[in-house]
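Service request form, structural biology core

Requester: graduate student, group of Dr. S.
Request type: structure prediction, single chain
Budget code: on file
Notes: please return the result as structure tokens.

Sequence provided:
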Amino acid sequence: MKTDENNPYDWFLLADERLRSADILAAQSAPSYSAVELLQEAVERYLKGYLVFRGWKLERIHDLGPLVEAAATYDARFSAFDDLAASLTEQFWAQHYPGDDLTDVGSDYETLRRQGGEMIALIQLSVPTPPSAEPANGGAPIEDRR
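Core staff response, request fulfilled:
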């Protein structure tokens, strides 16, 4: 299956898989550094999908702060997720490469997951379900996101 970085639904497809994986991992072993990384990657992909849907030119960044800021230019409600973006990005980088302090990484996973879920719900309400419910160029159908 070939995906298209200009198709928001392909971003959502990849985000959904990471979010499900993060939830499974967090349920089995909390706190989990990998669950934090997967949650950050899911939120990042949801934001990029939303922004691509709005016509944003893709930037290959992992810092959620600028992505939330860009989303807030389309819908001011995204500004409520500034703290989520800062905390999740900080924890993502802390565990991504050795050498940082891991003491608090994942300790607030439930809060991050709840806030991430609220942001994802806002995105899902803002972007219509695709008519075919399939990613670009065929492939596995996307689950109904509503």
